[in-house]
Design brief:
By secondary structure, this protein is mainly alpha-helical. The chain has a domain of 47 residues. The chain contains 4 helices and no strands.
Length: 104
């Protein structure tokens, strides 16, 4: 059985060499957003509950997400209202319960 060839490393000229690690600025693509406040465990629970309820109330996920992220008469943005407080969650759930199941 033949040995697999080792991957070839690119040839880099001496003047093109990378700077030392301490001089490089790391690029992190999946950084946490520290400029936005984190949700509390209660807020995360309300967010999950309202998303689940919306997914059950609409024919497809696109319609549910559109509803939760768009300004609605009398509610504002339902997702924000539901995350804000238990009363807000109840108001959004009530509004969703009054809606008929709409097609996408």
């Amino acid at each position: 059985m033949a040995k697999a060839a080792a991957p070839r490393q690119p040839v880099v000229a001496a003047d093109d060499a990378s700077p030392p690690a301490e001089q490089r600025q790391e690029k992190r693509f999946f950084r946490s957003r520290r400029d936005q406040p984190r949700l509390t465990p209660e807020q995360v629970a309300r967010q999950g509950r309202v998303v689940s309820f919306a997914l059950q109330s609409f024919a497809g996920p696109a319609a549910a997400m559109d509803y939760l992220n768009s300004d609605q008469a009398g509610l504002g943005r339902p997702l924000d209202l539901a995350i804000e407080s238990a009363d807000g969650l109840a108001a959004v759930e009530q509004a969703l319960a009054l809606r008929t199941r709409a097609p996408d």
